[in-house]
Structure formats: C-alpha cells, structure tokens
Design goal:
With 236 residues, this protein is an alpha+beta fold. 22% of the residues lie in helices and 27% in strands. The chain is built from five helices and 13 strands. Bound molecules: flavin-adenine dinucleotide. The site of flavin-adenine dinucleotide (FAD) has 24 residues, from strand 7, strand 11 and helix 5. The site of flavin-adenine dinucleotide has 24 residues, from strand 7, strand 11 and helix 5.
Length: 236
C-alpha cells in the first residue's frame, strides 16, 4: 500500500535495485474505500492456506497426537520415544516450547514474542490482499484477517500464548482505520507465540554428537515462509 507520492516514486526508483528490483512489480490503482496513491505488486508473493497445506501433508504421514515425554539414544544410533517406540532418526521441530531441543543443544537464544490478529468484517470490501504496517487478507464474504500485532514478555516455559487483549486490538484497528474507509466490525480474535531468537536467525542442523538427531527451530516471525527451504537444506 503506497500512501504518498514520495513512496510511489521510491517504489519506481527501487525497481532497478539489484536485490529488490525483481520483487517490485507494477503499481495498480487503489480500490474504492482504501486510502493511498497506488498498490505496489510484490512479485512472487502469495498467500498460503496453512491449514489446508498442513492437512494435505498430514494425510501423507502417520500422525500421533502425543507429547514426547522421554527421548533416549540407543547404542545402535536409534532413539526411543516415551520408552517404547524406536526410531532410526529423530527431527525435533518443537517451536517456542523447545524442551528437548534446548535440553540436547543448550539454550537457543530465544527472544520469544507474541502477536494478535482480528477477524473483521469490512463494510467497504477492497477485495484484495493489502499490506502496510499490518496486513488485511480477504477470507471471502467481506471478512478479513487483520494482523498481526507484536507483543513482548513471553516467559521461558510458557505453554500457551497470552489471551487477546484490548490494547493490541485497538492498535490493529487504529492502523486499519488509517487506510480503509467504512466500518470495521470485529468478529473474532486470535493470538500466537513467535519463536524468535535474539539474532533473528533460525537454528537448524544435526547434533554434533548424535548424527541421527536433527532440529529445526527459531523460525520467528517468518516460519511459514522459511520452513520449506530450511527443511530441504536440513534433509539434503
Ligand atoms: C501472530 C503471528 C503472526 C505470524 N505471521 C506469519 C506470517 O505472516 N508469515 C510467516 O511466515 N510466519 C508467520 N508467523 C510465524 C510462524 O507461525 C512460526 O514461525 C511457525 O509457526 C513456527 O513453526 P514451528 O513448526 O517451528 O513451531 P510451531 O508452529 O510452534 O509448532 C511446533 C509444534 O511442536 C509441538 N511440540 C512442542 N513440544 C512437543 C513435545 N515435547 N512433544 C510433542 N509435540 C511437541 C507443539 O505442540 C507444536 O504443535 C506468525 C506467528 C505469529 C504468532
């Protein structure tokens, strides 16, 4: 979302940039009810249906909904989980909880953050994905995902994200009101914890003393984006 002529000029000037140019696409007219001078198309961007993607992947593997309470190396390099099941290799992808990963690798240097999103109805439906300081993503029938806020203060060992709170909701609504007209009707809200690290870098690899044990973590604010590439690197 380009709000000023200066931003529009910057977008056009940067389209020759050696690193950014490939991603800065055409400038499109702003839909009715949206404040701005143009919509800069980010080439190669897309929205992943995360739930659909996970359902598709889960259908191809055996899923067991049990917590890993015991993880023990065996002499032949295999591992037992919860005392019974034996596995040739184990890959830990525990997210912000990271109980076993930190036990076996040491502290990952987390600076966990949390975020809140809102499910909103817009009276003037722009009909496209919009992003500025926050995002507005269409879910159909005039409903949108508005997100996500940024909150600090997650204690090590917290199992669940904090409850949605009014000040973060207000921050999101104030942001959206700056760029969309019409009424914004909040219909639901959600929160989640980001497994951020202090240096904002992911952690992945195979254990130096246990070559059959791997981990992928620290995916922070962009895990959906980065996980496929990192998983591929880990596997190869
Ligand atoms: C508000 C918000 C907005 C975000 N927006 C974006 C975005 O726009 N784009 C993007 O790319 N990313 C985004 N992210 C980041 C993304 O959600 C995370 O980076 C990603 O979920 C991390 O994936 P993960 O698999 O490492 O961890 P998780 O998604 O946390 O998954 C870890 C899983 O391991 C399980 N687990 C942990 N310990 C055990 C155990 N002992 N036994 C069994 N199971 C265990 C957990 O229950 C969980 O299911 C956002 C995150 C938040 C909170």
């Amino acid at each position: 979302m380009l709000r000023t002529v200066q931003e529009l000029n910057d977008w056009q000037a940067l389209s020759d940039h050696p690193a950014l140019g490939a991603y800065l696409g055409a400038i499109h007219p702003v839909p009715g009810g949206v404040h701005g001078v143009g919509l800069g198309e980010v080439r190669g961007s897309f929205r992943l249906n995360v739930v659909g993607f996970l359902e598709h992947m889960r259908a191809q593997v055996e899923v067991r909904n049990e917590s890993v309470e015991r993880l023990e190396p065996q002499r032949d390099g295999s591992w037992t989980i919860n005392g019974t099941e034996r596995f040739d290799r184990v890959l830990l992808a525990e997210g912000y909880q990271a109980r076993w990963t930190e036990h076996l690798w040491g502290p990952l240097g987390f600076a966990r953050t949390w975020g809140q999103g809102l499910n909103v109805g817009l009276s003037l439906d722009p009909g496209v994905m919009l992003h500025r300081s926050h995002f507005l993503l269409p879910d159909g029938n005039g409903l949108y995902q508005l997100g996500a806020s940024f909150g600090w203060g997650i204690e090590h060992g917290d199992q669940d994200p904090p409850e949605a709170n009014a000040s973060q909701a207000e921050e999101l609504l104030n942001s959206a009101r700056e760029w969309v007209d019409g009424s914004i009707d909040v219909q639901g809200q959600w929160t989640g914890i980001r497994p951020n690290t202090q240096d904002r870098r992911p952690r992945w690899g195979w254990h130096p003393e246990h070559p059959t044990l791997g981990m992928l973590n620290g995916l922070g604010s962009r895990g959906t984006l980065h996980a496929p590439l990192l998983a591929q690197e880990l596997w190869s």
